[in-house]
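Hello everyone,

My group is preparing for a crystallization screen and wants a predicted model to guide construct design. The compound we'll soak is nicotinamide-adenine-dinucleotide. Before spending weeks at the bench, it would help to have a computed complex in hand. I've included the protein sequence and the ligand's SMILES below. Output in structure-token form would be ideal because that's what our pipeline reads.
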Amino acid sequence: MTFDQPGWHTANMNSPISLKQLPQTNIFRKGDVFVLFGELFGRGYASGLVNEARKAGMDIVGITVGRRNDDNTLRPLNDDELAAAEANLGGRIVNVPLMAGFDLDAPAGEPTPTELLNKMTLKSWEQDRLDWAHIEKCRALGTRRFQAAVAEAMAALDGLIGDGRNVLFAHTMAGGIPRAKVFMVIANRIYKGRGERFMPSQALLDSDLGKLILQNFDEVSASTFQHLIEGSAAIRARVEASGGQVRYSAYGYHGTEILVDGRYQWQTYTNYTQGYAKMRLERIARAAWDTGVKATVYNCPEIRTNSTDVFAGVELPLISLLHALKHEGGGAWAESQWQACRALLADGHTLEDVLQKIADFQGSEVMQGFRDFAAWPQPNSQAQADLQIGTSDDIVQMHQDRAALITDLLSSLVLEASGTLILREASAPSGPVLWLNHDIVARQLNQLHA
Ligand SMILES: NC(=O)c1ccc[n+]([C@@H]2O[C@H](COP(=O)([O-])OP(=O)(O)OC[C@H]3O[C@@H](n4cnc5c(N)ncnc54)[C@H](O)[C@@H]3O)[C@@H](O)[C@H]2O)c1
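Reply:
Good plan to model first. Here are the tokens for the complex, ready for your pipeline.
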């Protein structure tokens, strides 16, 4: 279903609303301001959007999450760190620490949530209980700290945005895994464990430890978007009153339609515990949209970034982009991407072997059971973890070099396409929640490289 069909707004709850047309408008030009709300890592989604904003001639402004002192207090970047961050971004950084989440916040003299988690052991964590009244105090403190930092950052940013300029605020924050030893071990097992090391993700959700982590995901990956929208209200009002336009984008994840058996089908990485926070992010965009703010969550395909290395097998659907490139009218350039992927494989392995493994994986009865949009995000199962992590390992083994994978190459292509798609769609956005599936990504790439 597309957003221009009747009932799209409510249908969104039951099926993805996909971007189907290559967006044609671009309101962003020299002197307009692009604000990155998150730090920039080389292979992260944001780099595609920053490149596109730079091509449009926009001024680039970034923020920092800050750094921690030995006693865990937050501080701004020092001079060297600031210079390095500005060189990396290619723009000014507003140096106010915008670390989100409350895992290290607590009233003076009381334990932080991370300290409480560090009392749990691998034997005890499923039974260990948390004092929720105390956790709520920590959460409220973290929220106030973040909102105050946003206010300070916005005051500085205000001076960098001239009247009449268009502004794009690009939210990229996602995370919230607390640095607690016990969780590091659990995370390794629920995201990467198979065979005897498998651990059901439902056990995590049922525990107090898991409930706390879900709250922290909400704070980092979702509430920050709301604080951004609310915190920039004065800038928005001033810019709009002077003839400029203000847009907000955020990166979501809620499964992706990829080519399976010759037709586009929705599928998802499992188990995506962060999915609850991503649905909250979608609700924040819808609520803002309903008040007239042009905020859009772009649900993006699975790629490999600094943040996904913990999720074994998240990259498997990406390999099917090769099919989409051809299916969407790809010519010589698409063929050259196939060749470049072939060149990464070790002797004795063909790209057809890799694609067959993906077809077997997607076609398996086990994975069919996870193609249930309404039930997302489902917990993992032993059979699914074994198959997904096993397939991921097998495909890595088929390469010459683990540090140069087909999915690295394809990730960089998706970054490029998503940057173009988001900047242009943000010019005249058609809704608060949009999926960028393999079809539109492939069409955008084929057009960029025609
Ligand atoms: N990689 C994927 O497959 C994929 C798919 C769909 C959507 N996304 C989304 O894209 C966005 C960018 O992620 P990415 O995968 O490119 O990885 P990334 O590691 O490059 O980006 C993660 C971002 O989160 C910020 N961040 C992390 N912890 C934070 C905290 N406590 N407080 C404030 N900011 C914090 C970082 O500064 C960084 O900007 C995220 O919202 C992610 O969920 C990723």
